[in-house]
Amino acid sequence: MKQILIVSFGALLLSTFLSFSRGVNRIAPQAPNVLFIAVDDLRPELGCYGADHIHSPNIDALAERSILFENAYCNIPVCGASRASIMTGIRPTLHRFKSYLTRADEDAPDITTLPGLFKANGYTTISNGKVFHNPDDSRDGWDEVWRPTGLSSRDYLLAENIRLDTAAGTRGWPYEKADIPDNAYRDGKMTEKSIADLKRLSEQDQPFFLAVGYLKPHLPFNAPSKYWEMYDTEEIQLPGNSQRPSDVPNQALHSFGELRAYNGVPPEGPVSDEMARTLIHGYYACVSYTDALIGDLLNTLEELNLDEETIVVLWGDHGWNLLEHGLWCKHCNYRTSLQVPLILKVPGKQGQLRNEMVEFVDIYPTLQQLCQLPDPGHLQGNSLVPLLDVGSRPSWKKSVESVWHNGFTYTSHEYAYTEWRSESDSILAQMLFDHRSDGDENINLMDGSENIEAIIRDIKSGWEP
Questions:
Q1: Candidates 79, 286, 329, 371; catalytic one
Q2: Is 163 within the bounds of a domain?
Q3: Considering the entire predicted model, what is its pTM?
Q4: Does residue 285 lie within any of the structural domains?
């Protein structure tokens, strides 16, 4: 009887402890949670990256408490392939991770995905919104996968756009300004679901990996009116390098077919200046809309007292061209398509700026190390953990690699070099930019100068682990 009473009293103490730990003064678990925020088509044109014309107060506030990587690059500038690379921790190649339709479970079927690693090690894993491009990709890595639905495939709410988007062979306009609440579009619904998940997850003792994937600012640029009203179309400046360059290979350019599929966009040639300003205006409005939703999500994390036991990583899957070099969309080897925002908040680490060259294949090993999970043995990036302490100066890679079809770009602090290769690995075309004097990449230096080959060798060797 005495033994039974001792066991019962111990159970009561444990129950009381667990109930207390779920309340306001919740005791942090041994393993940190992860809030994994993906934003589609988000370029690093944010207040925290020096863009004072952009209203992004919530991401900016996160950045102040985080490690912000000033020189982060995607490994491939298209959503499906970029996400497959991030979630597997392996690089695109000539024959792997190629398009927006890429599936990790087809291109890398034997690889343990990032959520799969967390799930196998006791985490609850939830995917809300667009995380993988295909919602059923690598499904066994998730406990739950959820995406909101809308009135049309491209989430329009205005009648004309819905009519166009649901008719055979047409799409709506590439933008929409609607007098609606924040939760009317899919991203708003997805944020509400994610907030509800945080509240539910805060009541459990199991750590979580919650991935939240925002669609905007992906085309079409649909946002509630109040975010459009943050900007004045007449004050929006077109980029100074809006003309198609003449000194780069044809492989460097494209006809931005993704945009041309929308109503009102000419089937060939440039868009009008008026439409260009409206498109840029719509992009900015979507950035601010997404920022507000992310703010709601992060506020909930704080209200639940989860922020000091949760790693937050925010990333945009690739850049986006807003008429630079006469281009729209992504799908190219220019910096505008390759450079990305990457913000990492780690409990106990101070906010700071890091200017090292980092790339998306570095995310997987970073989270694996921070959460002390076993190494899956296939990772091709470098953990960012040595960069997280203020003032640390570890030995680090000097350049990063990005791939678009057969174009391989190597970017360092000083240069960006791209070469297009044949199947037999011979070089078909090249371009080289000096970022010290030409950050907008307007002057191709492939002119045969004597030191060009030495520069190229140095850049290409710098990315290797």
A1: 79
A2: yes
A3: 0.92
A4: yes
| The one catalytic residue among 133, 281, 318, 325 | 133
**What tokens appear for 278 in the block?**
């409206």
Q: Give dist(CA 311, CA 116) in Å, integer.
A: 17
Cα 360 from Cα 157, distance rounded (Å): 34
Cβ atoms of 420 and 429 closer than 8 Å? yes
* DSSP sequence for 238-279: PPTT-SPPSSS-GGG----HHHHTSTTS-SSSPPPHHHHHHH
Give the tens place of pLDDT for each residue, 131-144: 999 999 999 999 99
At 329, which helix (H) or strand (E)? Answer: strand 328-329
CA-wise closest residue to 337 among 264, 411, 278, 271: 411
Instruction: Give the domain extent around 248.
Output: 26-397
CATH of the domain at 178: 3.40.720.10
Q: In this predicted structure, what is the pLDDT of residue 450?
A: 66
Residue 206 pLDDT greater than 70, yes or no: yes
Output the CA–CA distances (angstroms, integers) from residue 34 to 3, 180, 191, in the order listed: 41, 31, 16
Give domain status of residue 176, yes or no. Answer: yes
Residue 133 among the catalytic residues = yes
Does residue 421 sit within a domain?
Answer: no
Show the CA angle centred on residue 369, arms to residues 319 and 461, nearest 5°: 55
Counting the structural domains of the chain, the total is 1
Q: How many whole angstroms separate alpha carbon 285 and alpha carbon 252?
A: 29
- Any catalytic annotation for residue 79? yes
DSSP 281-299: HHHHHHHHHHHHHHHHHHH
252-284: pLDDT as tens digits: 999 999 999 999 999 999 999 999 999 999 999
